Amino acid sequence: MQESPIADLHVHTTASDGTMTLSELPAIAREAGVDVVAVTDHDRFHPDLDGPVVERAGVTLIRGIELRVDAGDQRVDLLGFGVRETDALTETVAAIQRDRIERGRRIVDCVEDRLGVDLGIDPAEGLGRPHIARAIAATDAPYDFDGAFEDLIGDGRPCYVARDIPTFDEGVATLRAACDLVALAHPFRYPDADAALELATDLDGVERWYPYDGSRGHDATGGDGARLDELAERRDLVRTGGSDAHGRTLGREGPSDEAFERFADELGLGVASQ
Q1: Burial class (CB in 10 A: 0-12, 13-18, 19+), 131
Q2: How many helices (H) and strands (E) does the chain have?
Q3: Pick from 185, 166, 12: which is nearest to 89 by CA?
Q4: How far apart are CA 243 and CA 227, in angstroms?
Q5: Cα–Cα distance list, 137 to 2, 21, 111, 126, 246 (Å)
Q6: Nearest C-alpha neighbor of 136 from the set 112, 160, 154
Q7: 7, 23, 78, 218: least surrounded by Cβ within 10 Å?
Q8: What whole-number distance in Å separates Cα of residue 168 and Cα of residue 77?
Q9: What is the distance between the alpha carbons of residues 274 and 262, in angstroms, rounded to a whole number?
Q10: Can you give the pTM of this predicted structure?
Q11: Within a 10 A sphere around the Cβ of 2, how many other Cβ atoms?
Protein backbone atom coordinates (compact mmCIF):
# COMPACT_ATOMS: atom_id res chain seq x y z
CA MET A 1 0.00 0.00 0.00
CA GLN A 2 1.21 3.49 -0.79
CA GLU A 3 2.07 5.92 1.98
CA SER A 4 0.34 9.29 1.72
CA PRO A 5 -1.03 9.18 -1.85
CA ILE A 6 -1.77 12.64 -3.14
CA ALA A 7 -5.08 11.54 -4.65
CA ASP A 8 -8.02 9.56 -3.31
CA LEU A 9 -10.30 8.88 -6.25
CA HIS A 10 -13.15 7.00 -4.54
CA VAL A 11 -14.84 8.77 -1.63
CA HIS A 12 -18.42 8.85 -0.30
CA THR A 13 -20.15 11.61 1.65
CA THR A 14 -23.47 12.12 3.40
CA ALA A 15 -24.99 12.66 -0.05
CA SER A 16 -25.14 8.86 -0.13
CA ASP A 17 -24.06 6.44 2.60
CA GLY A 18 -20.92 8.16 3.89
CA THR A 19 -20.61 9.92 7.24
CA MET A 20 -18.48 12.88 6.10
CA THR A 21 -20.08 16.08 4.85
CA LEU A 22 -18.74 17.93 1.85
CA SER A 23 -17.86 20.93 3.99
CA GLU A 24 -15.72 18.71 6.24
CA LEU A 25 -13.94 17.01 3.37
CA PRO A 26 -11.17 19.55 2.56
CA ALA A 27 -9.85 19.70 6.12
CA ILE A 28 -9.95 15.90 6.45
CA ALA A 29 -8.14 15.56 3.11
CA ARG A 30 -5.42 18.03 4.09
CA GLU A 31 -4.90 16.22 7.39
CA ALA A 32 -4.43 12.97 5.46
CA GLY A 33 -1.98 14.59 3.03
CA VAL A 34 -4.40 14.22 0.12
CA ASP A 35 -4.58 17.03 -2.42
CA VAL A 36 -7.11 15.62 -4.90
CA VAL A 37 -10.38 13.87 -4.00
CA ALA A 38 -13.00 12.36 -6.29
CA VAL A 39 -16.42 12.53 -4.63
CA THR A 40 -18.13 9.40 -5.96
CA ASP A 41 -21.40 9.04 -4.09
CA HIS A 42 -23.64 6.11 -4.89
CA ASP A 43 -25.98 6.70 -7.81
CA ARG A 44 -25.85 10.49 -7.60
CA PHE A 45 -23.45 13.36 -8.14
CA HIS A 46 -23.06 15.64 -5.17
CA PRO A 47 -25.64 18.45 -5.31
CA ASP A 48 -23.26 20.99 -3.75
CA LEU A 49 -20.45 20.59 -6.27
CA ASP A 50 -21.10 23.13 -9.00
CA GLY A 51 -18.68 21.88 -11.63
CA PRO A 52 -16.75 18.81 -12.83
CA VAL A 53 -13.63 20.02 -10.97
CA VAL A 54 -13.62 22.63 -8.19
CA GLU A 55 -11.18 23.94 -5.61
CA ARG A 56 -12.24 24.03 -1.97
CA ALA A 57 -9.86 25.28 0.72
CA GLY A 58 -6.77 24.20 -1.19
CA VAL A 59 -8.10 20.76 -2.18
CA THR A 60 -9.09 19.78 -5.73
CA LEU A 61 -12.51 18.11 -5.70
CA ILE A 62 -13.61 16.06 -8.69
CA ARG A 63 -17.34 15.60 -9.13
CA GLY A 64 -17.86 11.90 -9.68
CA ILE A 65 -20.41 9.16 -9.29
CA GLU A 66 -20.48 5.44 -8.49
CA LEU A 67 -23.25 3.92 -10.57
CA ARG A 68 -24.54 0.39 -9.99
CA VAL A 69 -25.47 -1.38 -13.24
CA ASP A 70 -26.81 -4.78 -14.23
CA ALA A 71 -24.34 -6.74 -16.34
CA GLY A 72 -26.69 -9.69 -16.75
CA ASP A 73 -25.03 -12.38 -14.65
CA GLN A 74 -24.00 -9.95 -11.91
CA ARG A 75 -24.21 -6.33 -10.84
CA VAL A 76 -21.13 -4.13 -10.98
CA ASP A 77 -20.20 -0.55 -10.12
CA LEU A 78 -18.98 2.07 -12.57
CA LEU A 79 -17.00 5.13 -11.54
CA GLY A 80 -17.57 8.30 -13.54
CA PHE A 81 -15.12 11.21 -13.14
CA GLY A 82 -15.58 14.85 -14.13
CA VAL A 83 -19.37 14.73 -14.16
CA ARG A 84 -21.35 17.22 -16.24
CA GLU A 85 -25.09 17.50 -15.66
CA THR A 86 -26.61 16.08 -18.82
CA ASP A 87 -30.34 15.50 -19.13
CA ALA A 88 -29.82 11.75 -19.50
CA LEU A 89 -27.70 11.46 -16.35
CA THR A 90 -30.03 13.69 -14.36
CA GLU A 91 -33.02 11.56 -15.39
CA THR A 92 -31.16 8.31 -14.63
CA VAL A 93 -30.12 9.52 -11.19
CA ALA A 94 -33.65 10.74 -10.40
CA ALA A 95 -35.15 7.37 -11.35
CA ILE A 96 -32.59 5.48 -9.27
CA GLN A 97 -33.16 7.71 -6.26
CA ARG A 98 -36.94 7.20 -6.47
CA ASP A 99 -36.29 3.47 -6.48
CA ARG A 100 -33.84 3.81 -3.57
CA ILE A 101 -36.48 5.61 -1.50
CA GLU A 102 -39.14 2.97 -2.18
CA ARG A 103 -36.71 0.12 -1.67
CA GLY A 104 -35.47 1.67 1.57
CA ARG A 105 -39.01 2.06 2.84
CA ARG A 106 -39.72 -1.62 2.16
CA ILE A 107 -36.53 -2.74 3.91
CA VAL A 108 -37.19 -0.49 6.91
CA ASP A 109 -40.77 -1.76 7.21
CA CYS A 110 -39.57 -5.36 7.08
CA VAL A 111 -36.88 -4.81 9.72
CA GLU A 112 -39.21 -2.92 12.05
CA ASP A 113 -41.92 -5.59 11.74
CA ARG A 114 -39.44 -8.42 12.22
CA LEU A 115 -37.61 -6.92 15.20
CA GLY A 116 -40.39 -4.86 16.78
CA VAL A 117 -38.24 -1.71 16.72
CA ASP A 118 -38.51 1.82 15.38
CA LEU A 119 -35.48 2.65 13.24
CA GLY A 120 -36.36 6.32 13.02
CA ILE A 121 -35.56 6.47 9.30
CA ASP A 122 -37.51 8.66 6.91
CA PRO A 123 -36.44 7.36 3.48
CA ALA A 124 -34.94 10.08 1.29
CA GLU A 125 -32.53 10.45 -1.64
CA GLY A 126 -29.19 8.82 -1.03
CA LEU A 127 -30.59 6.20 1.35
CA GLY A 128 -28.60 2.98 1.30
CA ARG A 129 -28.43 -0.20 3.31
CA PRO A 130 -25.52 1.10 5.43
CA HIS A 131 -27.87 3.77 6.81
CA ILE A 132 -30.30 1.04 7.80
CA ALA A 133 -27.57 -1.17 9.25
CA ARG A 134 -26.34 1.70 11.43
CA ALA A 135 -29.88 2.33 12.62
CA ILE A 136 -30.34 -1.36 13.47
CA ALA A 137 -27.06 -1.38 15.42
CA ALA A 138 -28.29 1.63 17.42
CA THR A 139 -31.38 -0.23 18.69
CA ASP A 140 -31.58 -2.83 21.43
CA ALA A 141 -31.77 -5.59 18.80
CA PRO A 142 -28.88 -8.10 19.00
CA TYR A 143 -27.18 -6.97 15.78
CA ASP A 144 -24.16 -4.84 15.11
CA PHE A 145 -23.54 -3.22 11.72
CA ASP A 146 -22.06 -6.35 10.14
CA GLY A 147 -24.64 -8.60 11.75
CA ALA A 148 -27.45 -6.51 10.31
CA PHE A 149 -26.16 -7.28 6.84
CA GLU A 150 -25.34 -10.91 7.55
CA ASP A 151 -28.69 -11.80 9.10
CA LEU A 152 -31.24 -9.25 7.91
CA ILE A 153 -30.58 -6.95 4.95
CA GLY A 154 -27.72 -8.50 2.99
CA ASP A 155 -28.31 -10.11 -0.38
CA GLY A 156 -30.74 -12.99 -0.04
CA ARG A 157 -31.52 -12.23 3.62
CA PRO A 158 -35.08 -11.94 5.00
CA CYS A 159 -35.38 -8.16 4.58
CA TYR A 160 -33.38 -7.79 1.40
CA VAL A 161 -35.08 -5.95 -1.47
CA ALA A 162 -33.48 -5.84 -4.92
CA ARG A 163 -32.98 -2.53 -6.70
CA ASP A 164 -34.10 -1.49 -10.17
CA ILE A 165 -30.93 -0.31 -11.93
CA PRO A 166 -29.75 0.47 -15.48
CA THR A 167 -28.18 -2.17 -17.66
CA PHE A 168 -24.43 -2.09 -18.18
CA ASP A 169 -24.82 -0.72 -21.70
CA GLU A 170 -27.29 1.95 -20.56
CA GLY A 171 -25.06 3.00 -17.70
CA VAL A 172 -21.93 3.19 -19.81
CA ALA A 173 -23.67 5.23 -22.52
CA THR A 174 -25.08 7.67 -19.96
CA LEU A 175 -21.77 8.12 -18.16
CA ARG A 176 -19.70 8.44 -21.33
CA ALA A 177 -21.87 11.38 -22.42
CA ALA A 178 -21.54 13.07 -19.02
CA CYS A 179 -18.05 12.23 -17.76
CA ASP A 180 -14.45 12.61 -18.84
CA LEU A 181 -13.56 9.08 -17.76
CA VAL A 182 -15.50 5.91 -16.89
CA ALA A 183 -13.87 3.08 -14.95
CA LEU A 184 -14.80 -0.22 -13.36
CA ALA A 185 -14.77 -0.05 -9.56
CA HIS A 186 -13.05 -2.64 -7.31
CA PRO A 187 -13.01 -5.48 -9.87
CA PHE A 188 -12.27 -8.31 -7.45
CA ARG A 189 -15.28 -7.63 -5.24
CA TYR A 190 -17.66 -9.30 -7.68
CA PRO A 191 -18.61 -12.99 -7.64
CA ASP A 192 -17.20 -13.44 -11.16
CA ALA A 193 -14.09 -11.28 -11.34
CA ASP A 194 -13.12 -12.63 -14.75
CA ALA A 195 -16.42 -11.50 -16.26
CA ALA A 196 -16.09 -8.11 -14.55
CA LEU A 197 -12.60 -7.61 -15.97
CA GLU A 198 -13.90 -8.43 -19.42
CA LEU A 199 -16.43 -5.61 -18.97
CA ALA A 200 -13.58 -3.26 -18.08
CA THR A 201 -12.13 -3.64 -21.57
CA ASP A 202 -15.11 -1.63 -22.89
CA LEU A 203 -14.38 1.25 -20.47
CA ASP A 204 -11.76 3.96 -20.12
CA GLY A 205 -10.21 2.66 -16.92
CA VAL A 206 -10.14 0.22 -14.04
CA GLU A 207 -9.74 0.75 -10.30
CA ARG A 208 -6.31 -0.71 -9.62
CA TRP A 209 -5.80 0.31 -5.98
CA TYR A 210 -8.29 -0.14 -3.15
CA PRO A 211 -7.66 -1.04 0.49
CA TYR A 212 -9.62 -4.18 1.23
CA ASP A 213 -10.00 -7.78 0.18
CA GLY A 214 -12.89 -8.53 -2.13
CA SER A 215 -15.69 -10.96 -1.47
CA ARG A 216 -13.58 -13.78 -2.93
CA GLY A 217 -10.51 -12.95 -0.86
CA HIS A 218 -8.61 -11.08 -3.58
CA ASP A 219 -6.40 -8.10 -2.83
CA ALA A 220 -5.98 -5.55 -5.61
CA THR A 221 -2.67 -4.41 -4.12
CA GLY A 222 -1.20 -7.91 -4.15
CA GLY A 223 -0.94 -10.55 -6.84
CA ASP A 224 -4.13 -9.46 -8.53
CA GLY A 225 -2.69 -5.98 -8.92
CA ALA A 226 -0.18 -7.30 -11.43
CA ARG A 227 -3.05 -8.77 -13.38
CA LEU A 228 -4.75 -5.37 -13.45
CA ASP A 229 -1.53 -3.69 -14.54
CA GLU A 230 -1.23 -6.13 -17.42
CA LEU A 231 -4.86 -5.59 -18.43
CA ALA A 232 -4.47 -1.81 -18.28
CA GLU A 233 -1.35 -1.91 -20.44
CA ARG A 234 -2.86 -4.31 -22.97
CA ARG A 235 -6.13 -2.37 -23.29
CA ASP A 236 -4.66 1.11 -22.70
CA LEU A 237 -6.85 1.65 -19.63
CA VAL A 238 -6.39 4.44 -17.10
CA ARG A 239 -5.63 3.02 -13.65
CA THR A 240 -7.48 4.70 -10.79
CA GLY A 241 -7.40 4.12 -7.06
CA GLY A 242 -9.00 5.23 -3.84
CA SER A 243 -10.02 4.40 -0.32
CA ASP A 244 -13.73 3.82 -1.05
CA ALA A 245 -14.12 5.85 2.13
CA HIS A 246 -17.51 5.82 3.81
CA GLY A 247 -16.15 7.25 7.03
CA ARG A 248 -13.75 10.07 7.82
CA THR A 249 -10.42 8.46 6.90
CA LEU A 250 -9.00 9.44 3.52
CA GLY A 251 -5.82 8.43 1.75
CA ARG A 252 -5.78 4.77 2.76
CA GLU A 253 -5.20 4.04 -0.91
CA GLY A 254 -4.77 5.91 -4.16
CA PRO A 255 -3.10 5.80 -7.57
CA SER A 256 0.64 5.70 -8.10
CA ASP A 257 2.30 8.91 -9.28
CA GLU A 258 2.51 7.57 -12.83
CA ALA A 259 -1.14 6.48 -12.88
CA PHE A 260 -2.31 9.76 -11.38
CA GLU A 261 -0.47 11.78 -14.03
CA ARG A 262 -2.33 9.83 -16.73
CA PHE A 263 -5.63 10.31 -14.87
CA ALA A 264 -5.01 14.04 -14.42
CA ASP A 265 -4.20 14.41 -18.10
CA GLU A 266 -7.45 12.68 -19.09
CA LEU A 267 -9.43 15.10 -16.92
CA GLY A 268 -7.37 18.14 -17.84
CA LEU A 269 -6.59 18.82 -14.20
CA GLY A 270 -3.24 20.47 -14.72
CA VAL A 271 -2.09 18.92 -11.44
CA ALA A 272 1.37 17.41 -11.14
CA SER A 273 2.05 14.49 -8.84
CA GLN A 274 4.36 15.06 -5.88
Answers
A1: buried
A2: 8, 8
A3: 166
A4: 20
A5: 33, 22, 12, 19, 17
A6: 112
A7: 23
A8: 9
A9: 14
A10: 0.87
A11: 15
